[in-house]
Amino acid sequence: MKKWIMLLMAMLLITGCATNEAGSENEDEKKLKKVSVVLDWTPNTNHTGLYVAKEKGYFEKEGLDVEIIMPGEAGADQLVAAGKAQFGVSYQEGVTLARVQGVPLVSIAAVIQHNTSGFASPVAKNIKAPKDFEGKTYGGWGSPVEKSVISSLMKLESADVEKVNIVNMGDTDFFTAVKREIDFAWIYYGWTGIEAELRGEKLNMVYLTDYTEKLDYYTPVLSTNEDMIKNDPKTVKAFVKAASEGYQFAINSPEEAADILIKAAPDLDEDLVKKSQEWLASRYQDDAKRWGEQKLEVWENYAGWMYENKLLEKELDAEKAFTNEFLPE
Questions:
Q1: What is the pLDDT of residues 145-179, one digit of tens each?
Q2: Sign of the alpha-carbon dihedral angle for 178, 181, 184, 186
Q3: Which of 170, 197, 213 lies at the terminal end of a domain, its last residue?
Q4: In what order do the strands lie in the sheet with 117-122?
Q5: How far apart are CA 121 and CA 227, in angstroms?
Q6: Helix (H) or strand (E) holding 222
Q7: Contact partners, residue 290, CB within 8 Å, separation at least 6
Q8: What is the pLDDT of residues 212-265, one digit of tens each?
Q9: Which of 117, 273, 114 is nearest to 185 (CA)?
Q10: Dist CA 239 CA 110 (whole Å)
Q11: Rounded distance, CA 149 to CA 154, Å?
Q12: DSSP string, 127-187
């Protein structure tokens, strides 16, 4: 009889331990705070650090359960501003426009330190400088900023933007469009330019930063809203710290980082992701003292340019548009 009692007690003890262990696991799961980050576009190497932070457990280590979601009809800026997502991938122009209109977006980290975009054209088009835009057709997406940027660059070479035929090419693929109806388009070299290399199609690039520092703005950036910063700075700090680790990993180990992105988005072209990741690795942080660092003068320069070109209805209070306070030391 004693043996049965002892056996029963042992079984109860084991069951109790198992229950406690399961309870502990459940408690650990409950401790993770669920937040979401909305991308600005389909997954690409601008986003690698976020996927690395999720895959490597950096978010989890900071107490976060992060969902990376695609933008729908409402873009990242709208969802973050409305508090329907805690974080987003945005760009300096978007944050600037939002704030001038009273929308409380804040940039919390620069994903890439310098603007890597520019106007691309097949070598056969012979467009090597802004003055060569005259008489050519530009394919864009219908934003007023496009004509202003083209005009600003052309003015530096005493060329006339009115001699450029500007058309909206919508979602047409760059490589398809330049074979049909356009001569040049605005691209990010780190993705479309790298794709051209892989295709063996040589491009001429007119980079914005080669002509004026006013157009060396942050694109993309990570964003949140003022309510998050005011009411839950701990979560903002945790998110930025983990994201920073993710991008630092992509800087140091681009090949492995590329594999993580491909695993998360298997429809992507593997060769393109790997070559793009290699190209961007040294450009995420570039000459900044740490990844994500933003400068007031960059925000002031671009906002000033936008205001001069009547793209803003009033001047930006640049100091409130971004913060470095959540970046790891």
A1: 999 999 999 999 999 999 999 999 988 999 999 99
A2: negative
A3: 213
A4: 165-168, 137-140, 184-188, 117-122, 203-207
A5: 43
A6: strand 221-225
A7: 244, 327, 328, 329
A8: 999 999 999 999 999 999 999 999 999 999 999 999 999 999 999 999 999 999
A9: 117
A10: 14
A11: 9
A12: --SGGGGTT-EEEE-S-HHHHHHHHHHHHTTT--GGGSEEEE-TT--HHHHHHHT-SEEEE
How many residues are present in the chain?
329
Q: Which domain holds residue 296?
A: 32-114+218-320
Residue pointed to by tokens 């006339």: 160
Kindly report the pTM of this predicted structure: 0.89
Measured N-to-C along each axis, helices 254-264 and 48-55 cross at an angle, to the nearest 10 degrees, of 80
DSSP 8-state code for residue 120: E
Provide the token pair at 81. Answer: 């501003």
Q: Does residue 326 form part of some domain?
A: no
CA nearest 50: which of 69, 30, 32, 33?
69
188: nearest Cα among 118, 122, 128, 113: 118
127-151 pLDDT, tens per residue?
999 999 999 999 999 899 999 999 9
Alpha carbons 254 and 178: distance in angstroms, whole number: 31
Q: What is the pLDDT of residue 171?
A: 84
Cα(192)–Cα(57) distance, integer angstroms: 30
- Choosing from 185, 213, 241, the residue where a domain stops is 213
Q: Is 5 within a domain? A: no
How far apart (Å, rounded) are the C-alpha atoms in residues 88 and 39?
Answer: 6
109 phi and psi angles, rounded to 5 deg: -170, 140
Instruction: Determine the distance from the C-alpha atom of residue 203 to the mean position of all C-alpha atoms in its chain, rounded to a whole number.
Output: 24
| Orientation angle between helical segments 233-252 and 254-264, nearest 10 degrees | 120
- CATH number (domain holding residue 155): 3.40.190.10
Domain membership flag for residue 105: yes
Q: How far apart are the first and last CA of the chain?
A: 66
Query: Is residue 302 within 8 Å of residue 214, measured between CB atoms?
Result: yes
Say if residue 182 is in the same domain as residue 312.
no
